[in-house]
Specification:
The protein has three helices and two strands. By secondary structure, the chain is mainly alpha-helical. It has one domain: Putative Large Serine Recombinase, Chain B, Domain 2 (Hect, E3 ligase catalytic domain fold, Alpha-Beta Complex), CATH 3.90.1750. A two-stranded antiparallel sheet has the order 1-2. Strand 1 and strand 2 form a beta hairpin. The radius of gyration is 19 Å and the shape is extended.
Amino acid sequence: MRADKKTLKEISIFLKQKYNINFSLQRISKMLQKKFYIGMITFDGKVYQGKHDPIIPVKLFQKAQEVDNGFFIHKQQKPKKKTKPSFIFK
């Protein structure tokens, strides 16, 4: 779903409606970043090939990461509202 550019909120609503599962947006975001789902294990800061079968293909995982990276880059580049400084003395 994330690879299809669905927002975390849309994924959360889908999980609630289809499976009656409530996950916070932060929890969904962290789950989508775990390499465990592509058959990898992280131990002591290093990534190893796990003995378990991947749940999703590596290409799909990478595409979801690209969507997330693009979202956060786009969000950070958003122009901030200009506010007038408030002065103590006028």
